Amino acid sequence: MGAETPTPGRPRTFDEQTVLDRAAEVFWQQGYEGASLSSLTKAMGINRPSLYAAFGSKEELFKRAFDRYHETNLANARAALEQPTAYAAIEAFLRASADNLTAGGHPAGCLSIQGGLACSPENARISEILAAGRAATEAALEARLSRAAKEGDLPDGLDSRALARFVMALSEGHAVHAAAGASREDLQASVDVAMRAVAALHPGSAPAASA
Amino acid sequence: MGAETPTPGRPRTFDEQTVLDRAAEVFWQQGYEGASLSSLTKAMGINRPSLYAAFGSKEELFKRAFDRYHETNLANARAALEQPTAYAAIEAFLRASADNLTAGGHPAGCLSIQGGLACSPENARISEILAAGRAATEAALEARLSRAAKEGDLPDGLDSRALARFVMALSEGHAVHAAAGASREDLQASVDVAMRAVAALHPGSAPAASA
DNA sequence: TCACTTCTGTACCGAGCGGTATAGTCGAGG
DNA sequence: CCTCGACTATACCGCTCGGTACAGAAGTGA
């Protein structure tokens, strides 16, 4: 919205999106509760009053940073769902996730999980926000697979909701591995196993992979 | 070790294992950094000096609580690996994990993950300890599957290390789901999908499950 | 040039953190 | 029974937390 206001007073010396990216990286690496205001402001290159004037509170800053993370870092995973078949969509989703989780230029793993799976009661909202983000991704996955089911692109009797949860869980597990230092190759090998199994499950829609 | 010392002074009024269980639950629910000394001592029913006399520091308390957690709460998952076939071992492992993650009597999910995937730099040791615990479980899984490979109990060309990582990742993903409130049935449905896929992958060693 | 508005930087706030000194309490051995 | 030693409880330590008051700086419009 009003991002084009005619600037009544002194303009900011920092770009909002840029400092949000820096903040996201700190939350990503240290978790919400581990990320202190000092480390955040240091990484963002601004001081506390600027931070509070721009974002209001640590929690609001986190929400904004997480939203931006979702927009940017998960775009290719969402795009993967547009593959023509369910099999291709699942593989593209898992491959893109594995690449994201181990890509350079940002911390390993996934902010949605490292940000704070378990928090103290006063920060319980953070866990809920992260869980809602993951649930949205899983819902998108399920919607895609549900469409596949209607198109006859899924093995009979396979529940699209359970399949979406399976794929999402695998991806989340890869995030846990990545946070602990697993390499891209490690994760892709796991995806190889998963896709070989899914291919066996539904030979019709998979590329030829006979043993 | 010396649990049978002849009691030189005044005896403790609390049982060490019992208070470790309480401490584990707090860490489990709130994470290492979210768990304050106040909430820990309250849950354990002892005061700070007793805690420090018995365990030395918050970090040592965590290590002890985590060790005990490993002994008790993961016993059935380890036992699952003793199943006669690789297929049965994987299924038993995933089923036991899903049950553990959603069982009553303790917080949902898994301390190995909720305890602190990402911590501030000064608590980086905690993440490492948890990662080592998960790696040990994965190593046990891999050892079992490696044995299966030698016994011809694994499809040709299937890497036991990658398969172990796949199974472990799925289980960790289920833990993430459980932490966010997924039910036992939700997780078991995901296991159903996984086992159906693994069965298709290796029909020989799976129970008949034709659609 | 000058008011006006918004930003920046320093210095600070109360609260809670992890950890401890100290004094009192209580059970066992001589 | 009394001394000893390890326990418990209160009250406190320095420090860092998230958050803010205030004064000075700096662009804009008249």
Explain the overall architecture:
2 copies of one chain form a homodimer. The first copy, chain A, contains 10 helices and no strands. With 211 residues, chain A is an all-alpha fold. Chain A has 2 domains: 16-69, Arc Repressor Mutant, subunit A (Orthogonal Bundle); 75-202, Tetracycline Repressor, domain 2, CATH 1.10.357. Chains A and B meet through α1, α8, α9 and α10 of A and α1, α8, α9 and α10 of B.
Short structural summary:
Chain A has helices at 16-34, 37-44, 48-55, 58-73, 75-80, 86-102, 111-114, 124-150, 160-179, 184-201. The first copy, chain A, has 211 residues and is mainly alpha-helical. The termini of chain A are far apart.
The helix content of chain A is: 55-70%
Domains counted in the coordinates of chain A: how many?
A: 2
End-to-end gap of chain A? 56 Å
What is the arithmetic mean of pLDDT of chain A? 92
- Specify the oligomeric state: homodimer
Strand content of chain A: under 5%
CATH superfamily label of the largest domain in chain A: Tetracycline Repressor, domain 2
Quick one: CATH class of the largest domain in chain A?
A: Mainly Alpha
Structural class of chain A: mainly alpha
Number of helices of chain A: 10
**Major sheet of chain A: size, sense and barrel closure?**
none
CATH architect. name of the largest domain in chain A: Orthogonal Bundle
Order of helices and strands of chain A: HHHHHHHHHH
Shape of chain A: elongated
Low-confidence stretches of chain A: 1-5
Rg calc of chain A: 20 Å
Total strand segments of chain A:
0
The greatest interface here is:
A-B, 61 and 60 residues
CATH topology of the largest domain in chain A: Tetracycline Repressor, domain 2
